[in-house]
Amino acid sequence: MMGNLEGKIAIVTGAGRGIGQQISKKLAERGAKVAVVDLKAEWCEETCAMVAAVGSEALALGCNVAVSDEVNACVKAVLDKFGRIDIMVNNAGITKDGLLMRMSDEDWDAVLNVNLKGTFLFTRAVARPMMKNKSADGVQEGGSIVNLASVVGIMGNAGQANYTASKGGVIALTKTTAKELGSRNIRCNAVAPGFIQSKMTDVLPDDVKKAYMDTIPLRRFGTADDIAKCVAFLVSPEAEYITGQIISVNGGMIG
Ligand SMILES: NC(=O)c1ccc[n+]([C@@H]2O[C@H](COP(=O)([O-])OP(=O)(O)OC[C@H]3O[C@@H](n4cnc5c(N)ncnc54)[C@H](O)[C@@H]3O)[C@@H](O)[C@H]2O)c1
């Protein structure tokens, strides 16, 4: 399994910390060179160091995924540096929770713009470069796109109208992308994490954590590494016949 992404070029958005950071590290461990993208290039330094530490090469890029011109410039910068794009991981995501009756237009738009439009913009921008990937004997090599969805994009969740709608949209976009680009051997799948341990979730009250834990058959919260392992599988040759799928990585939570 180690090394099965040798020679591949990957872009990971929202990669300065959290799940995106672990995904970048995992892809690098398996041999991919990684364009590490976050809102500011300097936020990518720690992740780039992690990629270098496992013997691969990183490129730090500042880009707001919700802004078309910035996304297109980012993809061009990756092509200028590495010459091709094989793997796209649309991981950047935000929450702005609140009950829908009180949700502002601004909070709705902000979450939809980053989580859903950002995923669309990067998918559109990498599609053509991925179509051009051909082996020396002309075989269409295509590429692989993985989008970050969420268990709540499948189930819904009170207080997250904007976030759940954005992730439900990501799920539908994933299936459409797989249908449109499949003939070029470009695969597109989504990972739907459940409750992932993070700085954000660590501060939840104990009774809230226990209520979540009671819904998880494997009796532990997930880690960023659990998600990274699934992404690394989906972009690898091991998953060459898998496209248009939503893979739940949630310890068995419903969904
Ligand atoms: N943590 C969880 O429990 C969980 C559960 C389900 C799904 N997810 C999804 O996984 C992904 C990663 O989550 P995380 O917990 O690591 O989040 P995080 O907040 O720790 O990291 C997100 C990163 O995205 C970056 N980002 C935010 N807006 C951006 C923009 N406009 N352009 C570029 N980068 C931007 C942030 O700077 C940050 O580095 C998200 O899509 C999230 O919705 C997380």
What features would you describe in this structure?
The chain has 255 residues and is α/β, with parallel strands linked by helices. Helices cover 44% and strands 15% of the residues. It is built from nine helices and seven strands; from the N terminus they run βαβαβαβαβααβαααβ. β2 (33-38), α2 (45-53) and β3 form a beta-alpha-beta unit. α1 (18-29) runs parallel beside α2 (45-53), α3 (68-82) packs parallel to α4 (105-131) and α4 runs parallel beside α6 (161-181). It is globular. The model has no long low-confidence stretch (mean pLDDT 96). Nicotinamide-adenine-dinucleotide binds at residues 13-14, 16-20, 38-39, 64-66, 91-94, 114, 148, 150, 193, 195-196, 198, 201.
Kindly summarize this structure in a few lines.
The protein has about 260 residues and is α/β, with parallel strands linked by helices. The chain has nine helices and seven strands; from the N terminus they run βαβαβαβαβααβαααβ.
List descriptors.
alpha/beta; 255 residues; Rossmann fold; seven-stranded parallel beta sheet; binds nicotinamide-adenine-dinucleotide
